[in-house]
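Notes from hallway chat w/ T.B., transcribed later so I don't forget. T.B. wanted the structure written out for a chain they're using in a teaching module, and asked if we could keep both sequence and structure tokens in one place. Agreed to drop them here.
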Amino acid sequence: MPIQIIATEGIFDEHAEKALFAATTESFLRHHNLVGNKFMTPNVIGEICIVPKGRTFAGGRPDDIVIIELKVPAFALEATEQKQSFVQEVTEAALNAAKGKLLRERVYVNMVYAVDGLWGIGGKAFTNSELGKAIEASNAG
């Protein structure tokens, strides 16, 4: 599932960026009971986008921010407790990676649910249902 981390320039060094992306991936997989799933693990992909200082905003004014956004099928993270735990974990990971350069209030975690979407993976188009079946088949094998 695509992960995009958007951050103001200067918040993270290169090592911290990689650590935050890895922590977000690991948290996502763990919260979905997908750790080690041969289909899903390599398909948690994404990027880190660094925005020049002065070009990120909060309250309409320039501010340092981090946005962690995932796109997932509609069946993901249904339980409120599961959502809260995931948000807390990745927020803490962002704050740790920032080493004091970021306010907690400026870390935003967003999960976009694809109600019925197209997941093009390795040249094959999957519906949400087909994606779920591929994940389950990988868990069984």
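Follow-up for T.B.: The chain has three helices and eight strands. Might be a good example for the class.
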